Amino acid sequence: MITIIVELMGGLGLFLAGMNMMSHGIEKVAGSKLRSILEAFTKNRLMGLFVGLFFTAVIQSSSAATSMAVSFVNSGLMNLAQASGIILGANIGTTVTALLVAFKLSAVAPVFVLAGAIMCNFFKAPMVKKSGEIVLGFGILFMGISAMSSAMGVLRDMQFVIDFLANFTNPFLGMLLGLVITSVVQSSSVTVSILVVMASQGLVDLRICMFVILGCNIGACTSALLTALSGGKNAKRTALIHLLFNVFGTVLMFVLLLVVGDFIESIVLMVAGGGTDSGTLGRQIAYTHFLFKVFQVIVFYPFMNWIIKLTYLIVPGDDTVPEEKDNEYVAHFISNALPDPSVAVYVAIKEMERMAYMAFNNLNLAIECLIDVDEDGANQVHETEKYINYLNTEINNYLIKINQNAIPLGDANKISAYFHVNGDIERIGDHAESIADMISLFKERNLSLSQQSIDELREMMGTVNVILDKSLKMFVSGDESYMKDIQDYENRIDRYEKTLQDAHITRLKEGVCSARAGVYFADVISSLERVGDHATNIAFALSKSNVDE
To answer: Is the Cβ–Cβ distance between 228 and 87 less than 8 Å?
Structure first.
């Protein structure tokens, strides 16, 4: 008996390891591309449903898909209506693993293990190695299924095991068992796959398996709920959508099974086949899981807006950014608690975008304060620069932290570019501070700029604002259609510097403006030209890194 238990545990361990390896491998290889698909095709709930189905079928984990949806909502990437579509699709997509198990691919598992091992150990290209993890994980998963199936084949000959399982008919206990096991392993796919193996060996009855599957539905919500604990109110509502959908679906199916269980069982047998061979018995469980999920989605799809409204009653109020107190700086998007790896980089981009607008506004403020010789405004520039430096350090630390964790290869390849962008934004803030430093000298020496210099400075600053705005939009969105305009504005700023420097020298010769003020004016023009260079660096940072993907 001990040998059988060890073999069962070993098989389960292989199954879990294979599933995790395959899921993580897919996220590393295609995580950034899958995220792009989610961004592009979740504009409405129906499209989100199909995307969620596809996404979950690919990564073999509804927990990962729903946790990702929670992270997306928490990061502002999508709203609750869009996330609800992904959750519905994920509930159907999670049935794919059990369907694969039911079709008994164990015979070819060693081939996948060998192929995956070769790809992981004998190829240097990161993409090939990570793809090898997917293939290796797939093989290990089915070798684990084979080991469990072999052990359960022995259990089938033990009378006390047969007697125990034959008497296990309480629907409430069956549902509780499915809930507990799925909550522990955090994957309904694992629990249902085990049921498929047990059914294929004739160890469990189809009817009690239906109730266990219902328990799995609720247990599968654990990962999303845990992810939401550290998130905002909308993240909690997203997890609640998943929980409420599964609870309502489970209650509905539980009542139907008690009332018309024979009819439901006849539908399953009609779809999966009514044979008693091991293959058919396993398919009956897999198809039950699939049909239950599809039925629940069809029934509750029209009522998702009501479910979303219910989450607002359970979690009232709006999300608020962290409170800022005097002399205390806070990051709004990044934190010590890392989000889902697939959105970790997106969160960093959001914080960099916020920091960039702080730096841009500070630069404009510094220019206007110089023109007005406003020392109070200059102090505000210096205070904001301290905040920018704080965010720069926090973002750098965050990028280091996520780079040490498993993130999609497409994102990992761009980490160095994000460090450079963060640095360029911080240096724009430095230029604002340098300009603000001149104001006390202007005040002390009673200096001022001529009206012509002021007009030229504002005109150049207007052009700089355009390139800053377009560059940040290109960086955040990845839309390279901005590239031509950015190059044109960069050339225009370079010409501005030369033209304004020449005009300034002419005014000095004519005695129109002060020589002392003129020196500072020339420094400001040079600073704005360098700001244009930093803006171009921000825009093209990811464009250059894409070559390395």
So the answer is: no
> Cα separation of 93 and 72, whole Å?
19
DSSP 256: H
Q: How far apart are CA 209 and CA 177, in angstroms?
A: 10
- pLDDT, tens digit, 9 for 90 and up, residues 501-539: 777 677 666 666 666 667 788 888 899 999 999 999 999
Nearest Cα to Cα of residue 12 among 112, 147, 109: 147
Joined together, the tokens standing for residue 540 give 């093209």
pTM recorded for the entire structure: 0.69
Which residues, at least 6 apart from 38, have a Cβ–Cβ distance to it below 8 Å? 51, 55, 68, 72, 78, 86
Alpha-carbon distance of 341 to 339, in angstroms, equals: 6
HSE at residue 339, side-chain half, CA atoms within 13 A, is 27
Q: Where are the alpha helices (DSSP H) in 273-340?
A: 278-300, 304-314
Q: Predicted confidence band at 548 (pLDDT cuts at 50, 70, 90)? A: very low
Q: How far is CA 10 from the centre of its chain?
A: 32
C-alpha–C-alpha distance, residues 137 and 61, integer Å: 14
For residue range 198-232, what is the model confidence (pLDDT) as tens digits?
A: 777 777 788 888 898 898 888 888 877 776 776 67
